[in-house]
Amino acid sequence: MNRAPSRLLLVGVAIALVIAASSAWLASSHPDGLDSVSQAQGFGEQAKDAPYQVLPDYTVPGVADERLSTVLAGAIGVVVVTAICLGAGALLRRRSPAPRA
Questions:
Q1: Per residue in 22-76, pLDDT tens?
Q2: Residue 67 domain-assigned?
Q3: What is the 3-state secondary structure (H, E, C) of the chain?
Q4: Engineering a disulfide at 31: which of 35, 55, 57, 82 sits with its beta carbon 3.0 to 4.6 angstroms away?
């Protein structure tokens, strides 16, 4: 079995985690995108909350330090997206016909 793809995957995930952790410290506390526009246009109060929040406002509930909480939320996001991509890849590989020699 070739170990190069798994090593490449681990290096890629490690790089993504470092980027997520280092850029999380730069996160702005000001509203972004649609939140900012809705407040500027005066209809922000009409918005409804989502029926559930996994990581509300990019934080991990129960972690007191706001910056650490944001870093952890970013790391969780990297792991979740990696797992989804690996799962989708495995499903696609299973469904595709075997290559012809």
A1: 887 777 777 778 888 888 888 888 878 888 888 888 889 999 998 899 899 999 9
A2: yes
A3: CCCHHHHHHHHHHHHHHHHHHHHHCCCCCCCCHHHHHHHHHCCHHHCCCCCCCCCHHHCCCCCCCHHHHHHHHHHHHHHHHHHHHHHHHHHHHHHCCCCCC
A4: 35
φ/ψ of 57, rounded to 5, equals 55, 35
pTM value?
0.72
Residue 83 belongs to a domain? yes
Q: How many structural domains is the chain composed of?
A: 1
DSSP assigned state of 56: G
Domain assignment present for 47: no
Tokens of 100: 């012809």
